[in-house]
UniProtKB/TrEMBL annotation:
Gene3D superfamilies: Ribonuclease H-like superfamily/Ribonuclease H, Winged helix-like DNA-binding domain superfamily/Winged helix DNA-binding domain. Residues 126-139 have a biased composition (Basic and acidic residues). InterPro entries: Homeodomain-like_sf, HTH-like_dom, InsJ-like_HTH, Integrase_cat-core, RNaseH-like_sf, RNaseH_sf, Transpos_IS3, Transposase_IS3/IS150/IS904. It comes from Pseudoduganella flava. Residues 288-450 form the Integrase catalytic domain. It holds the Pfam family rve_2. This is IS3 family transposase. Residues 111-139 are annotated as: Disordered.
Amino acid sequence: MTKHDEHFKLRVVQQYLAGASGYKTVSKQHGLDDSMVRRWVKWFEAHGVNGLKKKFTHYPAEVKLSVLQHMWDNELSGGQTAALFNIRNPGVIRVWEREYQRAGFDALIARPRGRPKSMPAAPPKPETKRDDSNRSKEDLQAEVEHLRMENAYLKKLPSLSSSPAPSTAEKAQVVQELRQDHPIAGLLKVAQLPRSTFYYQQSLLGKDDKYDGLKRAIKEVYERHKGRYGYRRITCAVRQAGEQVNHKTVQRLMGVLGLKSLVRPKKYRSFKGEVGQAAANELQREFKAQAANQKWVTDVTEFSVAGEKLYLSPVLDLYNGEIVAFEMNQRPVFELVGSMLKKALAKLAPEDRPILHSDQGWQYRMPAYQRQLRERQLVQSMSRKGNCHDNAAMESFFGVLKSEFFYLNKFDSVDTLRAGLVDYIHYYNHERIKLKLKGLSPVHYRTQPLAA
């Protein structure tokens, strides 16, 4: 890493402050990263020339805690806090945050420096080579034939099936095509297909498939929703198209077609210690509402793409599972939640007073957030500490979002992900049906005419 003296830094800062060039132009002229130039300018504005001098400081735990508390109280970013306290590496403040969140004040106390002595690596085990010199010619020929047969089967199978788990019908078709060149017994063993199943599939080839139209309908719904629907939602969608069918039939045919709904992982954590004031758990896991804008839940989740992060903050209405409003940001700053809350409050009628439930994340404990709720006379509710089940409805949405959208696609940039999230949330609100909403989408359910 190149080291720069204070005279060089001062010359770069003065060039920027002269106003003729922006950060990117100045950094490009001197072969620097524009984020480094930004830091130098902040240091100079906060501390003058002394902010550009080399500094070697070990911070006591008390100082670290006071820096963190000041950052939280004043809603500052890590870079702003580092410039204010003349801390040369803004990243170290995030390290302090994580350590404090993990183990409290004791984690901020400096540990002895130096690398611990490592244990000597175990010597590698000698490779045992298979001795083929004593094997018979017939044995070797049989092994070669088996490998050729296995290779032919594995090459043929992907051309017939795009799913990771091919159906028995597809396996039987491959065996049938290869049986002219290889023994049937060996092919059935490679395909892990019972002989009776193979001949049963062969007998079906001469019969008309009475489910042919239904299979096409199932596959069309599955592909239109990009594998997000399981057999229950597909059954509902097929019934809405006018076909009367039992869900067990759809489940069985999806198995024959090798179609399977995709699954979910998790999650960003926002708790950063005892910051601000926590609210009582007013929701008490009562996740059902009798009308729109009675009960809202919110949280923040994290996405990682191409070495960058994107954070999503939505508000969900428990009446119909609709996303009322959302905001995205590449950093989990207070503006992410503050902007989201303003969008959500703007959609309320004057008489609406929903409970707004969240976890105990630092954003929801900020005075600015709680002030907006008081001004609108909304009741704030928070989950108990360390209990994700108290906000299970929001956790469920994040699970669906990631399994149906994020993990099914590849993104080359955060901007691509951001645009995709906007499209998916519109799809989730307006098109994606829910079984508990009588097979309707959230918006369709909310706007349906009331029964007489």
